[in-house]
Structures are given as C-alpha cells and as structure tokens.
C-alpha cells in the first residue's frame, strides 16, 4: 500500500511540475530571416536579451581553427557607434551583466538588464551584428586575450588537454576533431581579411536567433526589434556539407602526455549520435546512473568500496552532428590503469546484460525531473534554452516537452543503448600520462 501511495504521489508531482514549468513563448521571423522568440514573465523587473549564432568550431577552416571562439571576444571590441572598449562598460553602468560562450556548434551572446533597459540591450546586440569594427588593433588585442585564456584553461591546467587528445583520435574527417579554442598559430597566421570574411559569412541575421525574455511589453518590444534589427540586410545563406565519419570497429589505443599531472588517467571515449537522437538522451541517463553522486555505480564501487580510484566519472558531450561519450578514472596509489579499465568495463557489461533496478530507474527519472525544473528556473536559463532549442534542435517547444523524452526512457532502452554503443571495439582507449612517463 505504501508503495502504491508513493507511486501515486510521484505521478502527481510530475504532473504538477509539468504544469508549473510550462514556458509560454511567441516566435516569428523578420523579413531578413532573423528568427525572434519572445517570452513574457512580469514577475520580476528583469529582462534578458540574447542572440545565438549558428557558427561554431566545426565551421572553421582546418588551417584556421579557433575563429569562432575568437569572435566571441572580438565582437566586444566596438562598433561604428560604440567606441572601442566601451561595450563592456555600458552594460554594468546601466545595472546589467553580460557574457558570451562558444561551442563546436554555436556562439551565444547575452545581457541581463533591469527591464527598463530592454531597448539598450537590443541596440547593443543590433550594433554587434550591423556595425562591428573589425580592424587590426582589435585582432591583435584579442589575440593576446585568447592566448592568455588558453594558457590558463588548457596549457597550464592539469588534464587540460585531454579533450583535445580525445577529439583528434575519435574524429578523422569531421571538424569536431579540433577543439573550440583552436590553435594559436592559426590565429597568428590569419590575415585581417580572413577575419572580416568570417564575420560576413556567419554573423548575418538569417544565421541567428534573437531571444528577449522577462519583464517585457511584447507590443513595444516588437517595435524595437523591427527598428533595430529590421534594417540589417540578409546574408548569403550558410550551407554545410560536413564529412561523415566511418564507424569505429576496432578499439583505438593511444597515449598522451601532460607535464601538469603526476597521476595518470584512463579515458574511454565512444563516438555516439547527435543530441537530436533519442539514444543521446538515454546515454545522458547512463552517465547519471554510472557517476552522478556518491551513490552512483562507478563512484560507489571504485572510490568508496574498492578504494581503487581517486576519481571516476562518465559524461555524454552532446553535439549537433556527433556526440562523445567519455568515461574516465584516476587510479589510487599503484592501481594499474588496466585494472581500472577492467572494473569499469564490468559495470558497463552489467547494464548491457541486466535491466537496472526499478528503484534506480525511478531515481534517474527523479533526477532528470529536477534538472528540468532547474533549467527553467531563471529568465536567463529560459532565454538560453529557447535559443538552443530553436537553432540546434529546430523545435522550440522542447523547452516544455524534452522532459517527456526522458520520461519515456525505459529500463529496456537503457540496456539496448548500452549494448549498441558502449563496446570495446567501438571506442578509443586513451592512457593520459605524466610527461616523465614518456619514453
């Protein structure tokens, strides 16, 4: 009886969450092809203005990597109407905050303002798009900024280069084979004209989505959007014909060395499907099952019980064309990397051979319900989600419906997906070693 009551309560909670978290939005296109999404929430006097561009590291020339990330910095330099260095002063001076980020698939800029500054946010983003100044002084300045970022986040960071090593081994043809930050020598070699051409090709209204979310009057905001973004000319549509990867059928064995570490790591990496594929959602669940929290299977076994690992984890790096499923472990003491691999593989085989327990399955569903609630808990988060679901998934309503994909995942789905993708003959096995182990 208690179990039935618990199940009923869970169902009622799920229904309540779905209703409470429903995000209302309106979307339309400008004549120049720019997509616009509005979300009105007048509960707090805050507004987010954001633009996401469909350009990332995968859109770069293999000899000019790092351009997309470079533009994340460069387009704060200034415009015809904003003096150099003033862009980042105007926002905090008006009670706002801002940021930008780049992935292999897209670049995102946003500001959060008091709602009476919504017009300022729209003007700033329209200036970035319509009147950017891309000159040699800006390129030289941001080149040094990006180099320092790479030194801090990659070159001098323990295990900072492991993703670079994974990508170059996992992808042979597709541009996911290089990292978002790219190679500094490519930026050094690039001409000013190459930067200007990159801007003309990708920073166009018909390759972007504008989101305005928060305490707004939609009628007023629509007029502002038309005034600021409507006059921007449409660009030549971006076409992509990226190479496909042949399936991995034999385990790839590789070694990499890092002067910033003393403890080696073992990394298993699998090439998995796009985040548009339901299997990618299942792999997210498998990651949660294996390594989220101290009660997860890998942590409990290898860190708590057997004392074989200092750290262990699994993650599905979801991307537009392919994803990367990564499992890693740092051994404790003199435990060989081969032993960690064997222990990890045993847990994968368990998922492939037996259904996970009903209790574990329900726990996973609860965790993803919680993630769903948190992702829509702020205006800033909602703006990001609306942009992402439109630009990369072509389905804005996933902001409300994506949780139903997770709810539909069964224990049988988890077993089947583990069998389909997480096999030794389909992976990269990378030994990530201290530099002094190099022979």
What does this structure look like?
With 439 residues, the protein is α+β, with helices and mostly antiparallel strands. It has two domains: 25-229, Metalloenzyme, LuxS/M16 peptidase-like (Cytochrome Bc1 Complex, Chain A, domain 1); 252-437, 2-Layer Sandwich (Cytochrome Bc1 Complex, Chain A, domain 1), CATH 3.30.830.10. Helix content is 45%, strand content 19%. It contains 16 helices and eleven strands. The protein has helices spanning 2-20, 67-74, 87-93, 118-130, 136-155, 162-170, 184-189, 192-202, 218-229, 278-291, 297-305, 337-353, 358-375, 379-391, 398-407, 411-421; strands at residues 26-29, 35-40, 46-53, 97-102, 107-114, 208-214, 252-258, 265-273, 309-317, 322-331, 427-434. It has a six-stranded mixed beta sheet with strand order 1-2-6-3-5-4, with helices on both faces. Strands 7-11-8-10-9 form a five-stranded mixed beta sheet, sandwiched between helices. Helix 13 (358-375) runs antiparallel to helix 15 (398-407). The termini are far apart. The relative contact order is 0.16.
- What is the 3D form? globular
The poorly predicted ranges are 1-20
Label the CATH architecture of the largest domain.
2-Layer Sandwich
- With helices defined by DSSP (H or I, 4 residues minimum), what is the helix count? 16
Radius of gyration: 23 Å
CATH class of the largest domain: Alpha Beta
Strand-and-helix sequence, N→C? HEEEHHEEHHHHHEHEEHHEEHHHHHE
Biggest sheet, in brief? 6 strands, mixed
User: Could you give me the name of the CATH homologous superfamily of the largest domain?
Assistant: Metalloenzyme, LuxS/M16 peptidase-like
Q: In percent, how helical is the residue content? A: 40-55%
Task: Give the termini separation.
Answer: 65 Å
Care to count the β-strands? 11
Structural class: alpha+beta
Strand order of the largest sheet: 1-2-6-3-5-4
Overall domain count: 2
Q: What portion of residues belong to β-strands?
A: 15-25%
Output the CATH topology of the largest domain: Cytochrome Bc1 Complex, Chain A, domain 1
Q: Mean pLDDT, as a whole number?
A: 93
């Amino acid at each position: 009886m208690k179990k039935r009551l618990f199940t009923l309560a869970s169902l009622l909670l799920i229904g309540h969450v779905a209703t409470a978290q429903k995000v209302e939005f309106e979307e339309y296109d400008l004549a120049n092809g720019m997509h616009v999404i509005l979300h009105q929430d007048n509960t707090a006097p805050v507004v987010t203005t954001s633009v996401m561009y469909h350009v990332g590291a995968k859109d770069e020339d293999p000899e000019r990597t790092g351009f997309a990330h470079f533009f994340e910095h460069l387009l704060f330099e200034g415009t015809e109407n904003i003096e150099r260095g003033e862009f980042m002063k105007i926002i905090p001076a008006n009670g706002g905050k801002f940021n930008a980020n780049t992935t292999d698939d897209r670049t995102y800029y946003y500001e959060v303002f008091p709602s009476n500054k919504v017009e300022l946010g729209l003007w700033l983003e329209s200036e970035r798009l319509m009147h950017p100044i891309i000159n040699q002084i800006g390129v030289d300045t941001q080149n040094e900024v990006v180099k320092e970022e790479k030194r801090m986040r990659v070159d001098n960071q323990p295990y900072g280069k492991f993703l670079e090593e994974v990508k170059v081994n996992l992808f042979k043809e597709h541009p996911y084979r290089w990292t978002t930050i790219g190679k500094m020598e490519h930026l050094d070699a690039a001409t000013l004209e190459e930067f200007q051409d990159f801007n003309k090709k990708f920073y166009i209204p018909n390759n972007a989505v504008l989101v305005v979310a928060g305490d707004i009057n939609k009628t007023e905001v629509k007029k502002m959007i038309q005034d600021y973004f409507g006059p921007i000319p449409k660009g030549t549509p971006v076409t992509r014909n990226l190479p496909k990867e042949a399936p991995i059928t034999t385990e790839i064995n590789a070694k990499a060395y890092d002067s910033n570490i003393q403890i080696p790591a073992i990394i298993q990496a699998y090439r998995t499907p796009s985040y548009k594929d339901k299997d990618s959602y299942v792999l997210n669940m498998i990651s949660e099952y294996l390594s989220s929290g101290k009660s997860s299977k890998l942590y409990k076994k290898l860190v708590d019980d057997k004392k074989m690992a200092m750290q262990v984890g699994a993650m599905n790096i979801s991307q537009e064309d392919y994803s990367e499923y990564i499992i890693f472990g740092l051994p404790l003491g003199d435990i060989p990397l081969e032993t960690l691999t064997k222990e990890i593989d045993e847990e994968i085989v368990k998922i492939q051979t037996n259904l996970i327990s009903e209790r574990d399955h329900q726990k996973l569903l609860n965790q993803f319900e919680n993630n769903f609630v948190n992702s829509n808990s702020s205006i800033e988060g909602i703006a990001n989600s609306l942009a992402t679901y439109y630009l990369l998934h072509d389905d804005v309503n996933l902001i409300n419906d994506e949780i139903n994909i997770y709810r539909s995942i069964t224990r049988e789905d988890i077993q089947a997906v583990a069998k389909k993708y997480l096999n030794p003959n389909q992976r990269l096995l990378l030994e990530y070693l201290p530099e002094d182990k190099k022979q």
